[in-house]
Write a structure and sequence with these properties.
The structure is a homodimer of 237-residue chains. Chain A has 237 residues and is mostly helical. The first copy, chain A, has 2 domains: 4-84, Winged helix-like DNA-binding domain superfamily/Winged helix DNA-binding domain (Arc Repressor Mutant, subunit A), CATH 1.10.10.10; 89-229, GntR ligand-binding domain-like (Four Helix Bundle (Hemerythrin (Met), subunit A), Up-down Bundle). Helices cover 65% and strands 3% of the residues of chain A. Chain A has a two-stranded antiparallel ribbon with strand order 1-2. In chain A, a hairpin with a 5-residue loop joins β1 (74-76) and β2. In chain A, α1 packs across α3 (58-70) and α4 (89-113) runs parallel beside α8 (184-202). Mean pLDDT of chain A is 87; it is low at 9-19. The A-B interface holds A 17-19, 23, 59, 62-64, 66-72, 76, 80, 90-91, 94-95, 97-98, 101-102, 105, 158-162, 164-165, 168-169, 172 and B 17-19, 23, 59, 62-64, 66-72, 76, 80, 90-91, 94-95, 97-98, 101-102, 105, 158-162, 164-165, 168-169, 172. Chain A binds a DNA duplex (30 and 30 nucleotides) through α3.
Chain lengths: 237, 237
DNA sequence: TTGCATACATTTGCATACAATATAAGAAAA
DNA sequence: TTTTCTTATATTGTATGCAAATGTATGCAA
């Protein structure tokens, strides 16, 4: 395996005082590496190797892994070693099923009680996304914007635990493989579905929003299953 | 503050191989201490003191705290110190709102697709609970059985992420204070509500199960708010 | 060849030591 | 008295070393 994925650094987003450096950074780097496919699900993470590649000692590394284990990203395999969690067919269904329920709940609540500023914010993200789609921007950018769209809706639900939970589930999505706004066809569909959600929110229609989000996720899992079946491998919404 | 809560030990429930000793144990002890009210929300956790009381060094302690932070039980306060998370009025609403959605989802799925064995298991727990209620058993035992009831339903949903998420939320419930099956009146109501859920599951009626679970949680939050208003302090379902 | 046992190597778990940073207290100057 | 600078102390962050546990390989015997 190449060792260059340690290059997944990023400005340490330490807004006020938090756990500035290592532990938090390691967590992000590991997630990034998994997202990029540099570390595959099932791969065993050995503390010493990992520490050397990341340039940190085992102590903060273990803390990061402890957190990731709690989040369900890592798990202890049959051999006792810590591994990247693997999702089987049933897990994929379960994950999407739960996300569908929660995303539609978020959309419903957002449509009912988002503030004007929040509605505008959601609309702006959707507009940006729409433009980028037409420009044929790279998948990674679209995936990021997609995440922002969903998160802005979650935030507008004004339910912090819903936000946390969806955040957690979206991290688990990386276990399905690299994101794939690479299928032009599906990209268009996603745009239309996002539009439906956004419109419902803008018109204060909770029922429609809930419905639209539900359909969106239903199509997402369908697309995912197609990808799996075709062995094509790639992550969609 | 008394230091005797370190006595919250417990047989190391290490069924196959897990993290037998310190890190895992610390996590449980801390949760138990918070549940019992020995450590109040908002309290700052200082590594050295804590380590001495628990008889462990800071390293495993930090790992446990790192995990609890990821789970949302602990959070970093304004001063940068790690504290037990405090829930404000809105948080309580949000927590119950999310639980309501997920518990009803679990009940719905369980009613639709639980195996015969799973249905029997759920019914047995309910029966046990019913007997204990009539015997006037202590609140702690009832709370434990209540947890088993809800968990057995979650498991019967056959959605592992739903199980994980509900598990996580139920841990956060400890932040609301000590459990309170101490209100005789509410105990009876809970029994009736559990019966409704159980019956719907036994008769394979997903819609009724969903409805019953939803009502159950709605009443739970109402009871909780009453407790808060009366300053009576005590945890209900 | 298969099963088992023992020895070896690897890896994790924990503790201690060290470093850096934040906090509080106190003294000096305005 | 108030403010600020300094110093001391408390607390968290990181590294390393050691011990225990666990997986793995090798060899022997059936």
């Amino acid at each position: 395996m190449s060792t260059d994925w340690a290059a997944h650094d990023l400005k340490v987003q330490n807004h006020h005082g938090g756990n500035l450096a290592a532990t938090s950074r390691i967590r992000h780097v590991l997630i990034a590496a998994i997202t990029a496919g540099d570390i595959a699900p099932g791969a065993r993470l050995k503390e010493i190797d990992l520490g050397q590649q990341l340039g940190v000692s085992r102590t903060p590394l273990r803390e990061a892994m402890s957190a990731l284990k709690a989040e369900g990203v890592l798990s202890i395999g049959d051999d006792g070693g810590l591994r990247v969690r693997t999702l089987d067919y049933q897990d994929i269904h379960a994950l999407y099923q739960l996300r569908a329920k929660l995303e539609s709940m978020a959309a419903e609540l957002a449509a009912a009680q988002a503030s004007p500023a929040e509605r505008e914010f959601i609309a702006e993200i959707r507009a940006k996304e729409s433009i980028l789609v037409n420009d044929g921007i790279n998948p990674a950018t679209l995936a990021k914007l997609n995440g922002q769209f969903h998160q802005s809706i979650a935030l507008a639900s004004h339910n912090s635990f819903l936000v946390e939970t969806l955040q957690r589930l979206s991290i688990l999505m990386v276990l399905l493989g690299p994101t794939a706004y690479s299928l032009a066809e599906r990209v268009r569909e996603i745009g239309a579905e996002h539009d439906a959600i956004n419109n419902s929110i803008q018109t204060h229609d909770p029922i429609a929003a809930k419905q639209a989000a539900s359909i969106h996720l239903q199509n997402a899992v369908k697309a995912r299953l197609q990808l799996i079946a075709s062995g094509h491998k790639d992550n969609i919404d």
